[in-house]
Structures are given as structure tokens and as C-alpha cells.
Amino acid sequence: MKKALCLFFCLLMAVSGCLPAFAADPNELPQLKAKFLDGSGPEIDGLTIDYVYYAPETAGQKLPLVVYFHGAGQGRSPRAQIEENNFPLWASDEIQSRFTGGGAFLLVPRTHEEKGELWGDHYVAAMKATIDDFIAQHADSIDLTRLYVGGFSMGGKMTLKMASSYPQFFAAAFPMCPAYQPSTEQLKALADLPVWLFVSRFDIIAGYYTYSKKLWSEFCGVTNVPADCRLTLFGRVKDPAGRNTSSNHFVWLAVSNDLFTYEGGAYPNAVTTDANGDPVELVSPDGVVSWLCRYTSDYDGQPLTPTGTLAGNPDRLVSIVGKMLKAMLPLAFDAVKTFFTDLWARITAQ
Length: 350
Fold this sequence. Notes:
By secondary structure, the protein is an alpha/beta fold.
């Protein structure tokens, strides 16, 4: 029964949120994907995590590392985690140039979906060991104080798990439409970490009303760095060319393009505020990458003990139907409000 529910959850998330994404330059994306090499971490409690990675030219200096967790439907086979989304755009010359130092390492691990695994709790220790091993392989090139973590959908879930388990390890986190409700203890563990949350209020799978409204409200109450934390709330999600996407779950399209349109303009239907509620205006090219580059940690390679907060919030399948129904009422209200607002505007314009 559990396996059947896992497969149902995976299929639902894959259909709703993990279709091939748009690229800023469709001709460039295949070349960028080819730049990602294959690797795997050490075996921890019987689990070995495979990954793909991009290694920039370092020119003798140390550069940051970005760890990026994929969503459901993209862990079915090796390299699927980059073949079916546009995160490889971060390996482009344009995005790489926006990192302080002129580049960043990109590490994209894979959960074993072929076994029905969806970034379960047992992946946290193995993932930490995998990152440590990758850093050791590039010890002369990776800046330990600039380790960043992000991901979308169930990868947003894994982002929150990793960041709350090892908050001293990362300098900043950027979960996108996370399919997860962190506990109060987990959010408190993130109190000193800059966090940027991306979500659509029209996403009924893992959107604002299903998960993130409560998450953000509680997080704003515990963060010690509210001016450094951000929420980007989308309405109808569009691609960077301004075209409607097939799902409002696709907020990662915006992040992969650094939260600007293809022409470098403001992203449509997106409003950004900090954890104080103050508006944040983004001007190209200072988007997500520039925000990440503001932050460093005090991590110097010392052994870290996990906070233990994950044990108080064990991973479990949620009722997707219940979450959808919970989201329907405010979405229906928004739709009715928009309809009458537009109607009144047309009447008064005559």
C-alpha cells in the first residue's frame, strides 16, 4: 500500500510539475547539459547518491558551490535531474558571470525514484556525506563559506530538510514551491540563515495555500535576519518570454532565469517582499544569484552534528487530495475577486 501511494504521489507531481521546461536559448541548453559530468557519493547506511555536476574554470581562486535538488519525476534514471529541467542555464556564461569570482560549482544529486524514494529522511545523512566528498575532491577550488542550497517541489522539501539539519553548513537557501511543512523546531534552526522562498498562490500541488503560507508566516516570526530573507509570490506563472506555463507549479522557470525575463525585465506576475513585509525591487542583472553572493557562513570544514530537528518531523506522505481541497477556497475567492474587479474596470471605463 505504501509503495502504491508513493507511486501515485510521484506520478501526480511529475504530471503536474515536472514537464520539460523552457530555456532562455533552446539551442544552448543541450550544450550546457553536456557540460555536466557524472559522479557519486560514498555509501552511507546502504545508500549511495549519484549526481551530475558542473565544474567551472577557477583560475586559481575558490568559488561557491550550489547544491540543487530536483522535483518528482526527475529521479527515474541517472542524469534525468538535468535532462528534464532548465537549471543547466546556471552553467551558461551569463549566469556564471554573475557569481562573485566569475563562476560557481553546481551539484545536482538524484533521489532513487525507480525505487519509490522521494527524498526521504534517510537521504539527509547520505547527502551531507556526498557534499563533503565532492568538496574534498575539489578542495582547492571550493569556498567553504559559500555553500548554497536550493530545490523545487519535493526538492524544496529536501532543501528545507538539509538546511534545518545543517544550518551552519550553508550560507543561504532558496526553496521553490516546497512540498513540505517544516516543524517549528526546524524553522527555528533556520533563524540565522538567509532564505528566499518562491511559490505561486495558484499552485494547488505545492503552492502558497497548500504549504507555504503557514511556512512563511511562522518563519517570519522566528528569523533573526528578516531583511535578508525574501518571499517571491507568483500569480499565474509564465515562462521568461511571458507565455503561460501549463502548470502554476513551474516557479523554478523564473529562478533558472535568475528571476528576470529573457530581455532582462521584471518577471511577470511576481511580487517580492522581505520577511519584514517590505517590497523588494529587482533590477537586472541583480537577481537570485546576486542575492546568494551577498552571504557567507563561518563554516571552515569542521565536523558538524545535525540539529536533530528532523527526528521531530518524520517524513510522511501527505493527503494530496486534502491539500488540494484546502487550496481551492482561497483560489476560488481570488478568481471571483479578479472577475468583478475587471468587470468594474470595464464598466467605469465606458
